[in-house]
């Protein structure tokens, strides 16, 4: 659930000749093996200098090395937020890509984010979160990083949400990489969601693979299972949000909360018309529901409610500005009890609470810079955890998943 | 001044007397003195929490004292379950429908005690109240504090969440075992036996006093049929109590000493007050 990792793209590769770093790398791999599925919070320091990066990011690696498992980190090193140092997305950061990047001396923008996901007051965990920094690259002029953040809130069972977590970013990557320049974001995202929905359907049909699910007994074909999906692809100049269902993405720009997605509720006027035009009905049964069953009008999966419930996302493309502070993605476990404005206010305060960036220092004052790196990674996870705790405090009865992405540039 | 006997003393004397006392009566005495002690612990915990919030900088000595207090309270819970376990071997039925509990408590029991996963709701509720109390204050955004349950850290929340998922699974498994055990009440041997005994009773009423000889035999059959059922219940009760104690300890292990104090305060307050309310309700109705 809650985890903080700090790592730097290409760190694994820069290590080779330096013994200290090699050691760190192997230690990190060990940890990765254990925790592969449990990534929660990752923050990467904005650094361009490889050497500085190395020195900065492992300010107290000795402490971490002693901590064989995470519990001992908590116990012995309670105030160490940056505890496990790990590279969280191995796949997307191949050695080849990194060395190309370094050769070009490209100034890279490494993402800073925090993530929290808890079962909360429910008896089943149906939320899933996927975070993939630098999940794909475009050749040629667009040789910059795209970062992927997705929240999936399952219903009926968790298997569709888990499937989205495993696959959707790969499908989005494939769609992006087949495009030439002038990325047609909307169509690419729509195709990705459509393919995801098809995969879920095909996977359901081969029911041998779902024997571990609790939904198996209730519906042999597990047709009555689905998931929301809110996905943000953050590029150096754009935020592309694709949404299907009632999870939500909110941008905090200069203190103002700007929703980048609109919840798909069956009583949203245009959605109601669409459902009725398709021959479906919205019945009020503990709130508006499609055919009296599903309390959202779009979702991945839910084959039995097609064509009334569709998997087509609504996509917004937002140009990033200097005033952008952060992006919050969350499941309805947060949004049901915390308003967009409150969430933005809280996240903003957390980001501002971090120590101001130190003025440029001469090389050799790594200690100071390290402090900045650590506190910036702490800020996003402070924000995600505080929002989660606030949701629990306000009696959220659902699973709560929150991702906070720092959008401030050149801090 | 006469000191009330401690729960440990009550237990020792009752054990010595053996079967002369009715088991549930003795356990009732133990339970009542245990509640008195829980109330004393509650006062100690409250004192520790106010002292901690008055001292801005916590010192090592104070932290050690708090740790020892938390250990003592946990040992007290261990004692409760150890005694309960030994009594359950003699009288599992009264442990599952404890006459020393109020009917309000009874209505919310899960296999003779509190539902283990309730611990997480207790934690989230108390943590939420303490967090809400900070809204509008600078402490709300201070992430380096360790004052109470509002200060749950990312790694702690992760630990709690994963413990909760484990405990939900275990609780479901035990619930399932209990379901199976309850279904055995209608197995063929029980249905057969109940029919035979009913027939016997009908015969007896028509023949007026006949079939006396068979009575002892019937009694033996009933006991041998019910015996294994009670044993099964006792095993399930042990599993349930074990899960309760492990859940309590698991949560405490994740919390900092002062957070543990706040959690134990919330647990004791809820337990004691819920008991009071139920007793009062029962008294009004009788």
From TrEMBL, chain A:
<keyword id="KW-0479">Metal-binding</keyword>
<dbReference type="Pfam" id="PF00481">
    <property type="entry name" value="PP2C"/>
</dbReference>
<dbReference type="InterPro" id="IPR000222">
    <property type="entry name" value="PP2C_BS"/>
</dbReference>
<protein>
    <recommendedName>
        <fullName>protein-serine/threonine phosphatase</fullName>
        <ecNumber>3.1.3.16</ecNumber>
    </recommendedName>
</protein>
<keyword id="KW-0378">Hydrolase</keyword>
<feature type="region of interest" description="Disordered">
    <location>
        <begin position="354"/>
        <end position="373"/>
    </location>
</feature>
<keyword id="KW-0460">Magnesium</keyword>
<keyword id="KW-0464">Manganese</keyword>
<comment type="similarity">
    <text>Belongs to the PP2C family.</text>
</comment>
<dbReference type="InterPro" id="IPR036457">
    <property type="entry name" value="PPM-type-like_dom_sf"/>
</dbReference>
<dbReference type="GO" id="GO:0046872">
    <property type="term" value="F:metal ion binding"/>
</dbReference>
<feature type="domain" description="PPM-type phosphatase">
    <location>
        <begin position="112"/>
        <end position="407"/>
    </location>
</feature>
<keyword id="KW-0904">Protein phosphatase</keyword>
<dbReference type="InterPro" id="IPR015655">
    <property type="entry name" value="PP2C"/>
</dbReference>
<dbReference type="GO" id="GO:0009788">
    <property type="term" value="P:negative regulation of abscisic acid-activated signaling pathway"/>
</dbReference>
<dbReference type="GO" id="GO:0004722">
    <property type="term" value="F:protein serine/threonine phosphatase activity"/>
</dbReference>
<dbReference type="InterPro" id="IPR001932">
    <property type="entry name" value="PPM-type_phosphatase-like_dom"/>
</dbReference>
TrEMBL record, chain B:
<dbReference type="GO" id="GO:0006351">
    <property type="term" value="P:DNA-templated transcription"/>
</dbReference>
<dbReference type="GO" id="GO:0043565">
    <property type="term" value="F:sequence-specific DNA binding"/>
</dbReference>
<dbReference type="InterPro" id="IPR051886">
    <property type="entry name" value="Seed_Dev/Stress_Resp_Reg"/>
</dbReference>
<protein>
    <submittedName>
        <fullName>Transcription factor TGA like domain</fullName>
    </submittedName>
</protein>
<feature type="domain" description="DOG1">
    <location>
        <begin position="24"/>
        <end position="284"/>
    </location>
</feature>
<dbReference type="Pfam" id="PF14144">
    <property type="entry name" value="DOG1"/>
</dbReference>
<dbReference type="InterPro" id="IPR025422">
    <property type="entry name" value="TGA_domain"/>
</dbReference>
């Amino acid at each position: 659930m809650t985890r903080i990792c700090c790592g730097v793209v290409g760190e694994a590769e820069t290590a080779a000749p330096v013994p200290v770093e090699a050691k760190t790398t192997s230690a990190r791999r060990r940890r990765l093996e254990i925790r592969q599925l449990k990534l929660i919070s990752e923050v990467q320091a904005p650094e361009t200098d490889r050497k500085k990066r190395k020195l900065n990011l492992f300010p107290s690696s000795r402490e971490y090395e002693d901590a064989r498992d995470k519990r001992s980190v908590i116990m012995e090193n309670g105030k160490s937020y940056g505890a496990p140092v790990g590279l969280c997305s191995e796949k997307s950061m191949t050695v080849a890509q990194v060395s190309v990047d370094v050769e070009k001396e490209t100034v890279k923008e490494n993402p800073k984010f925090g993530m929290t996901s808890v079962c909360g007051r429910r008896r089943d965990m149906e939320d899933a979160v996927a975070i993939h920094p630098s999940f794909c690259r475009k050749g040629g002029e667009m040789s910059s990083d795209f970062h992927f953040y997705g929240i999936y809130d399952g219903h009926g069972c968790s298997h569709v949400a888990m499937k989205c977590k495993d696959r959707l970013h790969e499908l989005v990557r494939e769609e992006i990489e087949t495009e030439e320049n002038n990325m047609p974001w909307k169509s690419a995202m729509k195709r990705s969601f459509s393919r995801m929905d098809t995969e879920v359907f095909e996977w359901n049909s081969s029911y041998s693979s779902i024997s571990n699910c609790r939904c198996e007994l209730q519906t042999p074909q597990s047709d009555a299972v689905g998931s929301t999906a809110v996905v943000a692809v953050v590029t150096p100049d754009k935020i592309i949000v694709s949404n299907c269902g009632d999870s939500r993405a909110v941008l905090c720009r200069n203190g103002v909360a700007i929703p980048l997605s609109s919840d798909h509720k069956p009583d949203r006027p245009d959605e109601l018309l669409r459902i009725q035009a398709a021959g479906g009905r919205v019945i009020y049964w503990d709130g508006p529901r499609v055919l009296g069953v599903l309390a959202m009008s779009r979702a991945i999966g839910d084959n039995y409610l097609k064509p009334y419930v569709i998997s087509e996302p609504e996509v917004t493309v937002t140009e990033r500005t200097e005033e952008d502070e952060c992006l919050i993605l969350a499941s309805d476990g947060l949004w049901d009890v915390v308003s967009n404005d409150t969430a933005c206010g809280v996240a903003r305060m957390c980001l501002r609470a971090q120590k101001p960036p130190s003025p440029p220092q001469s090389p050799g004052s790594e200690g100071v810079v390290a402090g900045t790196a650590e506190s910036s990674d702490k800020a996003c996870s402070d924000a995600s955890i505080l929002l989660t705790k606030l949701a629990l405090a306000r009696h959220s009865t659902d699973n709560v998943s929150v991702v906070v992405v720092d959008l401030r540039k050149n801090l | 001044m006469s000191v009330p006997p401690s729960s440990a003393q009550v237990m020792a004397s009752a054990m010595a007397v053996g079967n002369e006392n009715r088991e549930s009566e003795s356990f009732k005495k133990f339970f009542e003195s245990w509640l008195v002690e829980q109330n004393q612990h509650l006062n100690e915990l409250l004192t520790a929490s106010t002292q901690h919030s008055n001292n801005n900088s916590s010192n090592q000595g104070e932290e050690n004292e708090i740790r020892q207090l938390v250990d003592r309270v946990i040992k007290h819970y261990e004692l409760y379950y150890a005694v309960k376990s030994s009594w359950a071997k003699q009288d599992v039925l009264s442990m599952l429908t404890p006459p020393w509990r109020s009917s309000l408590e009874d209505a919310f029991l899960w296999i003779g005690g509190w539902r283990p996963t309730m611990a997480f709701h207790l934690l989230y509720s108390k943590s939420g109240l303490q967090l809400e109390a900070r809204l509008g204050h600078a402490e709300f955004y201070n992430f380096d504090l360790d004052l109470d349950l509002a200060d749950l850290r990312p790694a702690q929340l992760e630990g709690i969440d994963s413990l909760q998922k484990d405990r939900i699974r275990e609780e479901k498994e035990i619930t399932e075992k209990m379901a199976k055990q309850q279904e055995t009440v209608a197995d063929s041997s029980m249905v057969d036996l109940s029919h035979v005994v009913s027939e016997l009773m009908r015969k007896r009423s028509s023949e007026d006093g006949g079939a006396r000889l068979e009575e002892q035999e019937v009694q033996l059959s009933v006991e041998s049929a019910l015996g294994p059922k009670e044993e099964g219940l006792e095993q399930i009760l042990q599993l349930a109590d074990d899960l309760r104690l492990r859940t309590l300890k698991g949560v405490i292990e994740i919390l900092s000493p002062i957070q543990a104090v706040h959690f134990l305060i919330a647990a004791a307050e809820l337990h004691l007050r819920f008991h009071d309310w139920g007793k009062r309700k029962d008294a009004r109705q009788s």
